[in-house]
Amino acid sequence: MAPKKILLDCDPGLDDALALLLAHTDENLELVAVTTVGGNVALSSTTRNALQLREYLGFDSVPVAAGADAPLARPAENAAHVHGEEGLGSLTLPAAVLPPADLHAVDLIIDTLRASPGTVHLIATGPLTNIALALRREPAIAKWAASFVIMGGSFTRGNATPAAEFNIYADPEAAEIVFAAGWQVVMVGLDLTLQAMATPEIVRRMHLLGPLGTELVVPLSTFWTNPDGSEPHGQAVHDLCAVAYITRPDLFRSRPAAVEVETHGRFTVGMTVVDFESPEPNALVPVDLDVDGFWEHVLGAWETLSSRHPRA
Ligand code: RIB
Ligand code: CA
User: Is residue 312 part of a domain?
Assistant: First the structure.
C-alpha cells in the first residue's frame, strides 16, 4: 500500500519535534509539507526549530512554511515554561542553512490540499490558528483533506487551566471555527495522550537508538524529568499520538462526539465541551490507547532511521 501523505501544522515544541520525527520515519507515511504556528514559543522560534529539525533529520525537500504569529482574537500565550525558552528544551541543533518556503503557511495548506483532494491527511499539533485562517479563505479544505487529526482538547481536565488544554486555550476562536467546519475532527486530547508517557523503561529503549536516541529523542523526551525519565515518572509525548493515529488507528479506541469550544467563560475559556451522546457528532475522540502497541510502533519506526541516521 502506498504511504499516506501528511501535512503537519505544528509549534515545535518538544513533542512536536518527536511528531515530526515519526512523520518522517514511519514508512507508511510521506511527509509532504510542514507549516508552523506560534504556540509553545514564538513563531520565529517554532519556525527556526522546524527548519533545524528538517536538516538534522534529512527531509530537506519537504517545504516548511511559517504561519500565524498570534491568535485570531486575543493576545498570544506561550508554553516556554514547559518547552524551554527556545522551544526544544536543552537541545541545540545546528543552524539551518535552507530557508523556509516563500509562501505563508495558509497558502501552503490550501495549495497542498487543493492539488490532490482526498489524499493528504492534515494534522495539527499546535494552536489551530493556521487551520482556521485556511478554512476562512478556502472552506473546501474541509472536503479536500483525507482526514483531519489534532492533538488538542480534553473531555476531562485541561493543562493550561483546569478546564482547557493548551492548544485550544491558546486560540479558542480558531478552534471554534475548526470544529464547526463540517469535517470530522479526530480530537486526540489529553485524556488519551497522558496514557503515553516516556517512562524510564521507554527512555532506556530510546538510548538503544544510537546517536538519534542520545542526541535527539532522549533529550526531547526527558526535559522535565531526570535524564532516565524518572521523577516524575515519565514525560508526556502528546503530539506523537496524533501522528501515530494516521497509520495505526487500531491502537486507539475512539468514540464519536459533538465537541463545542468555550470562548467566553470566565474560568472555562478554551474548554472543549464533549458530548458522547449527541446524535450529530462532529468529532471522533480517541479515549483509550494500546500503550505497549503504541511504543512498539513508534520505537520500531525510529529504529529504521537510526540504522541509517547520518550520525549513526
Ligand atoms: O497540551 C499539549 C499541547 O500543547 C502539545 O501540542 C504541546 O506541544 C503544546 O503545544
Ligand atoms: Ca504542539
Answer: no
Is 154 close to ligand 1, i.e. is its CB under 6 Å away?
Answer: no
What is the number of domains present in the chain? 1
In the reported structure, the alpha carbon of residue 37 is separated from the centroid of ligand 2 by a whole-number distance in angstroms of 9
Hunting for cell 529503549 — which residue is that?
A: 205
Residue 142 sits in a domain whose CATH number is 3.90.245.10
pLDDT tens track of the chain, all 312 residues?
A: 899 999 999 999 999 999 999 999 999 999 999 999 999 999 999 999 999 999 999 999 999 999 999 999 999 999 999 999 999 999 999 999 999 999 999 999 999 999 999 999 999 999 999 999 999 999 999 999 999 999 999 999 999 999 999 999 999 999 999 999 999 999 999 999 999 999 999 999 999 999 999 999 999 999 999 989 888 789 999 999 999 999 999 999 999 999 999 999 999 999 999 999 999 999 999 999 999 999 999 999 999 877 765 554
The rounded distance, in Å, linking the Cα atoms of 238 and 241 is: 6
- Could you tell me if residue 206 is inside a domain? yes
Q: Which residues surround ligand 2, an ion (CB under 5 A)?
A: 11, 13, 16, 125-126, 239
Atom 10 (ligand 1): residue with closest C-alpha? 126
Residue 181 located in a structural domain: yes
Q: What predicted TM-score, i.e. pTM, was given to this entire model?
A: 0.97
Within the chain, where are the H helices? 14-25, 43-57, 80-83, 105-115, 129-137, 141-144, 166-170, 172-179, 190-193, 200-207, 211, 218-221, 238-247, 291-306
- Which residues participate in catalysis according to the annotation? 238
What are the C-alpha distances in Å from 299 to residues 86, 211, 235?
A: 26, 14, 16
User: How far apart are the CA of 1 and the centre of ligand 1, in A?
Assistant: 31
What range does the domain containing 147 cover? 4-306
